[in-house]
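Retro notes (design track)

What went well: tokenization of the new backbones is finally stable.
What didn't: we kept losing track of which sequence belonged to which structure.
Fix going forward: every design gets posted as structure first, then sequence, in one message. First example under the new rule, 144 residues:
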């Protein structure tokens, strides 16, 4: 069975963690539902360090029409120790400061909006399964 959403990886960067100095990786791209873009995504993790839970950020909303500024940021953390995802406050994530983001959602806001939570969860599933650049992050779960 094919996934209803498709992922378009578009970029990546590398840096260093502010708290431990280890190398970090960030990858990004778009999530599409057939011909329509539903979200941009950013995944950031500390290379070789599962203790720093990887961040998954999704800018969900209208794409392709600059007159509409309805994109909200939903953020999730991956916990390798129990192979689960947790919704977190998006306000402290770098994408929250982007001009592309109209509102960074708190954990409570994401949970209170079942339609949005379902879209974010679908995007998370698509990125997890389809973006090959996340092999190291997926391996964290196997090593825990």
């Amino acid at each position: 069975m094919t996934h209803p959403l498709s992922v378009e990886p578009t970029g990546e960067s590398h840096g260093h963690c502010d708290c431990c100095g280890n190398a970090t990786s960030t990858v990004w791209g778009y999530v599409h539902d057939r011909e329509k873009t539903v979200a941009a995504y950013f995944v950031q993790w500390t290379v070789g360090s599962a203790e720093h839970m990887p961040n998954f950020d999704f800018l969900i909303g209208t794409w392709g029409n600059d007159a509409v500024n309805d994109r909200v940021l939903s953020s999730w953390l991956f916990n390798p120790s129990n192979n689960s995802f947790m919704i977190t406050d998006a306000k402290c994530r770098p994408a929250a400061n982007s001009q592309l983001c109209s509102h960074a959602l708190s954990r409570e806001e994401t949970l209170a909006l079942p339609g949005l939570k379902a879209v974010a969860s679908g995007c998370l599933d698509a990125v997890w399964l389809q973006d090959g650049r996340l092999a190291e992050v997926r391996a964290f779960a196997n090593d825990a």
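Added context from the reviewer: The CA atoms of residues 38 and 77 lie 20 Å apart.
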